[in-house]
Amino acid sequence: MRQRDSFFKPTIQPRPPGVTRRAHTVLAGVFALFACREVASAPLAAVAPGPILAQVRAVLARDEAKWIEFRHDLHRHPELSGAEVRTSQLVADELRRLGLEVRTNVGGYGVVAILRGAKPGPMIAYRADMDAFQSFASDPVDYASLSAGARHICGHDIHTTIGLALAAALHQVRDSLAGSVAFIFQPAEERATGAKAMLADGVFSAGMPVEIYGIHTSGYEQGRLATTAGPMMAGRDRFDVTLSGTGDLVSASAAVSQRIKGLATIDVSQINTPQPVDFVFVQISTPQTSAGAVRLSGTVSVASAGSRARVAATIRSELASALPSNVAVTSTYEEKWIAGVTNDSIRAATAAASVRVALGDQALATVTTIPAAFSEDFGSFQEQVPGVFFYLGVANSARGWNGLPHSPDYVADDHAIGVGALAMSAVIVDRLRVR
Fold this sequence. Notes:
The chain is α+β, with helices and mostly antiparallel strands. It is built from 11 helices and 17 strands.
């Protein structure tokens, strides 16, 4: 899960000297958006979803200890974006043991595997990201990271393990499936480059899925998931503006910076409050000054196409109106640097129904908050294939385990692996079961 850019603090550490209490509180509030503790944890309902899913449930229960230990191994050996060598090898080995068609080194260290059902039918994709996050905080678990400066505090070790557990469970019921499942294990999500790299490298060369699904850990209690139709995570654009000429460039850069900031509909003091569906959040780095030029760069989080068009038009072509004639401006604006997440409304409804049948009505919540300071490149796949993203609860408040991504005291409840794998199995089985 891509956070705010490097000119903001990458994790919420204890308040350091010189940082105001208010500034630290605002940053901490970013993570509170993912807590969603207003919905109490509930046990999974005992339901009868059908013989295929019952078999999947039994396989997942049988193998739970194996997948927990696998996840612990990944957690002990985290690998940052672009360096997922060991992780991808372990993933590929597990998939080959199942007899799946496996392709490695896709868009970096990406892995793609195809499970084919007994009868022809559509292809469904599941995506898991594999990279860890930079963190020098101590790891509060007994399977702590052995790699200094790298930890799985975004839950990608959970995502990856769910993907493998899902593949193993669906492999057991493949004779009851009409179609195929593409398992996509993505590198470099934290750098927001992995999805685009895999797409450029032909991730769908074995066949174009009709839909794609994914999961991200969150501060919901273990045993719960959440999703929504339509926008779920804002997209992230970036811009670069250079001012040059014989005029007062310092004053000109201040005027341009103010013009860009004026495009925002929320500011840093508001990011710890629920956001509307349509908002603009602007972040500008410190100006870089060289001989005869000043450069401004930054990012814009947007939650709708209309807001993106308004901001892009201003930065691309309307900044000169704020400048004197002896100052020139050139600018670039890259839309969907990070695509964000927009769920297909019809598929979100059908997937939600499948999850409720498998886990019980109380297990699924509806997302009502779009976080301004986080994004995800799962949306790059959704631009090619309609799909649905879920938040997966990994917190355990009774044990004091904080499931908020990128928090230094992040701890994910291992039992969320089975919940996530069962939920995704329910969705895929409902789409592919032989009728």
